[in-house]
Amino acid sequence: MEVFYYVVFGALSAIVAGLELGKSGKDRVATTSAFNSFKNNYVLVYSLMMSGDWLQGPYVYFLYSQYGFDKGDIGRLFIAGFGSSMLFGTIVGSLADKQGRKRACITYCITYILSCITKHSPQYKVLMIGRILGGIATSLLFSAFESWLVAEHNKRGFDPQWLSITFSKAIFLGNGLIAIVSGLFANLLAENLGFGPVAPFDAAACFLAIGMAIIMSSWSENYGDPSDSKDLMAQFKVAAKAIASDEKIALLGAIQSLFEGSMYTFVFLWTPALSPNEEDIPHGFIFATFMLSSMLGSSIASRLLARKLKVEGYMQIVFSISAVTLVLPVVTNFLVPPSSVKGGTISFGGCLQLLGFCTFEACVGIFWPSIMKMRSQYIPEEARSTIMNFFRIPLNLFVCVVLYNVNAFPITVMFGMCSIFLFMAAILQRRLMVVSDLHKSSTTQEMIGEDEPLNP
Questions:
Q1: Cα 311 to chain center, whole Å?
Q2: Which residue ranges run through the membrane (predicted)?
Q3: Which of 27, 81, 92, 453 is most buried per CB count within 10 Å?
Q4: Which residues touch 21 (CB under 8 Å, ≥6 apart)?
């Protein structure tokens, strides 16, 4: 492995360690032992759930290519996953609100374990079924767990501001440290120990089973609106009405779709972008480096949230920076001549892109706890999972369209599209801040008016 990878990984590790060790009193919030116990239980479960997801990340594309499928075939498999998430997401989200978030979390574990098992088959139809199951699981992962946490946090009477602590810690560990270890562990299983690219999927199934056992034994059930009179269609109507009647919720959904759509497209694009001539790159180690960058971002986010900086303000900068990083492959393609050697080491242009991708992943690390904070503020509790999965419809549609046309456009065009969408997210974030400030101002004026005595 080239020294370059170690240098990038080591530099990021030093920065993250410095940020964590350098935290001052302003970066920490005093809490209770009951809350700490609750937080630690959730973070443990979330970390196990994310390890089940992250272990698969570095080798999904590579496994399909090893089975002999080309970029178009692999693109269709990815489309199946995002398409199933789009089609079934709102249904499973409504069922989570109606039938219980704990049950939905258990369903996630079972569905994803089944998806992992299908990776043993080189049959395209079996792999397609696995992608469909994985898409359903993804919808649950990014809605049911957060919905359960917010409802349980409020039910237990904890300070609403403490939600940011749990969000930041969960992302720091689940999307940071656990993701790094998962990438390295996947690399160890698949390459160093020679078990092949299917081994990380078996390990993922084991971690999901452990997490499911903890959920079943220690979590209580909570619901959105358990009213017997509300069926799935009624849940959809409640969610659609909330989005249509509140500009803040609609803007938040658009922002999330634009950013996550670009992020999931990046997941598909980074491997061919860094190895356009089949360069020999350490997939697991690079993935771990990306996750270390995400960990850096979540560490920055925890400081910003602890100091109660306005999320709507600093996220405009984050989206703008992320847009610049994804336009880098377009720039390097014109300025840096591509390597003509097949199967060699990573090129100079690839090194520049890798640094840009690490910056993008740092933005992703800031995004997750920040968007969770905004969702906890703006989304009503009674249909939280349903609304969150409504948000995923446009992002999954966007990714499906991009992947369907993966052979029609060069990679640089797709990166350029993602960059444009991220700039749009920055603009909408600005609008969200303006609307939020206007709403707070009008609410304050109404409260002042109610407190003033009537004139005699």
A1: 17
A2: 6-22, 43-62, 74-96, 129-150, 170-189, 201-219, 284-305, 317-335, 347-368, 411-428
A3: 81
A4: none
Residue 33 CA, chain-centre distance (Å), reads 29
Q: Which two tokens stand for residue 100?
A: 């219980």
CA distance 233 to 386: 11
Exposure string of 5-31, with b = 16+ CB inside 10 Å and e = fewer, is beebbeebeebbeebeeeeeeebeeeb
Separation CA 243–CA 240 (nearest Å): 5
Confidence of residue 25 (pLDDT cuts 50, 70, 90): low
Nearest to 62 by CA among 278, 263, 352: 278
Tokens of 273: 């972008």
- The whole-angstrom separation of Cα 71 and Cα 76 is 9
> What's the CA angle centered on 226, arms 144 and 91, to 5 degrees?
45
Strand ranges in 313-374 using DSSP code E only, listed in sequence order: none
Dist. CA 302–CA 316, nearest whole Å: 17
Give the mean pLDDT of 59-80.
Answer: 84
∠ CA(248), CA(295), CA(174), 5° rounding?
80
The tokens for 326 are 């994804």
Q: Which residue has the higher pLDDT, 22 or 111?
A: 111
Length of the chain: 456
CA distance to 240, 271, 279, 339, 399, per residue, from 346 (Å): 48, 11, 6, 9, 27
- CA dist 303 and 27 (Å) reads 5
Contact between residue 364 and residue 292 where contact means Cβ atoms under 8 Å apart? no
Reported confidence tier of residue 271, pLDDT bands at 50, 70, 90: confident
Three-class SS state of 311: helix
Residue 100 — left, alpha, or beta (φ > 0 → left; ψ -120 to 50 → alpha)?
left
Q: What is the pTM of this model?
A: 0.75
**Cα dist. 283→134, 245, 254, 451 in Å?**
21, 45, 32, 62
Q: What distance in Å separates the CA atoms of residue 61 and residue 78, rounded to the nearest whole number?
A: 9
SS3 content of the chain, % helix, strand, coil (to 5): 80, 0, 20
Instruction: Answer yes or no: is pLDDT of 454 > 50.
Output: no
Percent of the chain with pLDDT over 90: 31
Q: What's the angle, vertex CA 292, arms to CA 290 and CA 295, rounded to 5?
A: 115
- What's the pLDDT at 218? 93
CB 394 within 8 A of CB 257: yes
The string of pLDDT tens digits covering residues 146-190 is 889 988 998 898 888 888 888 888 888 887 788 788 878 888 888
Q: How many Å apart are CA 306 and CA 161, to the nearest integer?
A: 9
